[in-house]
Amino acid sequence: MIRIVGGIYRHRTLKQPDLDTTRCTKDSVKEGFFSSLGEAIKNSTFLDLFSGSGAIGIEAYSRGAKKVWLVEKDKKAQQIIKDNLASLKINEIDLFCGDYESALQSFKIEGLQFDIVFLDPPYKMDLSKDFIDILKIHHILLPNHIIVLEKDNRLDSDEFDEYNIRELKYGKTFIYILRSK
After folding, report:
1. Domain boundaries defined on the chain
2. pLDDT the model gives residue 21
3. pLDDT at 123 over 70
4. What does the alpha-carbon distance between residue 25 and residue 19 come to, in Å, rounded to a whole number?
5. Local structure of residue 10 (DSSP, 8 states)
6. What span, in angstroms and rounded, lies between the C-alpha atoms of 172 and 153?
7. Helix axes 55-62, 75-88, angle to 10 degrees
């Protein structure tokens, strides 16, 4: 089980998908990066592009994000997200059932833009400047956006000169908070 560590749903538990297909963000990691986001989370539009259980988006909502979108392509994980939202009686979080490319295209067509984007992709997918450029091409980032990356290796921060970058390290997990300049 996963816990919500802050906000109005603090201490509530969530189901999680099979750990072979997803990895859950540890409580200490969630607490650390949400604390680092501070007041930026309040009234923000928040996107979790690889949602797994939906815990990060639910945490954002619990801490005051005004609107949250979750994207998940795995059918089992989608059902767990729906179960988690139902157990908390949350109707204000939207779930996009499909891959991230389809979601980005849909968001572009709908004109959706986000203050904060959280990225913790599947194990084999590497996050690089090229991936951030894909977000920009789809025009889903608001001018003063924040991108949060969860990685198991160091980020080449030289590629991201248009951002103020904060690195947080928790054991083998790296969190990068990229704030647009």
Report:
1. 2-180
2. 56
3. no
4. 11
5. T
6. 8
7. 30
3-class state of residue 131 by DSSP: helix
Q: How far, rounded to the nearest angstrom, does the alpha carbon of residue 149 sit from its chain's CA centroid?
A: 8
Which residue matches tokens 């979750």? Answer: 70
Overall average pLDDT of the 113-136 stretch: 85
Query: Under 8 Å CB-to-CB from 98, ≥6 apart: which residues?
Result: 71, 73
Place of tokens 């990356």: 149
Neighbours of 126 (CB within 10 A): 10
- Tokens linked to 24: 């859950």
Q: Cα(141)–Cα(147) distance, rounded to whole angstroms?
A: 9
The domain over range 2-180 is classified in CATH as 3.30.110.30 = no
pLDDT at 128: 74
Supply the Cα-derived Rg of the chain in whole angstroms: 15
pTM beyond 0.90: the answer is yes
* Longest Cα–Cα distance in the chain: 43
Instruction: At 174, list the tokens.
Output: 């790296």
User: pLDDT per residue over 157-181, tens digit each?
Assistant: 788 889 999 999 999 889 999 999 8
Helices 55-62 and 27-37 pack at an angle, to 10 degrees, of 40
Whole-number Cα distances in Å, 32 to 66, 100, 135, 168, 177: 21, 26, 25, 8, 11
